[in-house]
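User: Continuing from earlier, I have the next pair ready.

Assistant: Great, send them over.

User: Here they are, in order.

Assistant: Folding the first of the pair now:
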Amino acid sequence: MEQLAASIQNQTADTARDFIVSAEDLPQFLIDAKQAIETGDHKKADELLNDQAIDSIRKMLHEKPRVDIMVMLVLMFDRM
């Protein structure tokens, strides 16, 4: 099972912690957007995280809430 790591910055220190999210049950566009952000391709990430994609995630989270995905999205948008 593939895992994705997102960095969480500690606001009180210069240390980073890893936040691990399982790639299982994630839409491919979300994985691709995270990889685009990590490589600095913010234009590609923006295209991948379009209104249709966000609506898809919203529906998915409505059916089965997942805090890990919500945190991952917050961290991704913070880096864009």
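And the other member of the pair:
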Amino acid sequence: MHPPSEFRTALAHALQGPARHVERVSRGWRVAISNGCHVDAYARLVDEEWLELTAAAPPSPAGDDGDHRWQLLRLNARLNGCARVVLRPDGGLEIRGELFVADSADGPAFDTAPPADRDHIFTIDERVGAACVDLSSAYGSCRVLDPDAPSAIAEASDITPYETETLAQRCEQAGWHVGSRSPEGIDLVLDAGTASYRAHVGSDHASRLRVVVPLTDGREKSDASRMAIATILLGVGASVRTVKGVAFAHGRIEVAGIAAACERQPHAHATLDRALSALAVACGRVGREVAALQTDDLARAYLALRHPSVISDASLVNPDLVLEDTPCLQLP
């Protein structure tokens, strides 16, 4: 195990594996990744525990409108791994991924991991390499974004009753109340303070953790509503680690919500707890707002007040609606 004093050196070495070039800069590293497509990324260690990888998203030929942002939610739903598209507070779109690297098999916090989890924890080199692949793949998918791509969540696979029960036990041991069980996984309730939300927990074909929380219903949404919802969901991905805004098929309808952006390693107890905790925080921040923004008038007023730069059509603005009448959309 690397002592804390050598942890940054170990991370720099791990970045050199998947990258063509690594340059030490203030507070991090510039990383040139070539894995199918070239990506200029920035890596930094946050709080001595999290490795954050970021790269500017490629520009859209059609512009950054509501339809483009909704397509990015669909793209996030199809992506596997830790990388996803987020919207920074300054309005810029970014590809981002985070790893809790402190509990890697050679990280400083490995000895604190439950013994049953240690066999499922990869080394820093393995995890950083996989994260760089995730970032490059997400960048390439964003660059050739297909507006006609189907709405889908990253494909799940049926899991055995034993795997379902193991997943349920880990959730309960971490303090999460488990509801129904099915061949696709388990349902549980996330308490976000002012409201509760249903989360579905399962695995994909590679046994990677998959957690999805729908936040909208199946009603038809106006252009303003889709723009507002996509803006707020892409934004929460920039403010809450390992959370991504998604839009996906749910039966015969399309819904939007949030999902865990989990790395490519089997789900250990701590990984599951961090993912659920992050989603609960995100639900508390945007759950009520997303539900309200399904109403066209509220969505138009929200965009005009909070994001006037995205309003190019004066007809989208309803001057008669007062946001103070809608508590969850009031300004701070």
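Worth noting for the second one:
The mean pLDDT is 81. The chain has seven helices and twelve strands.
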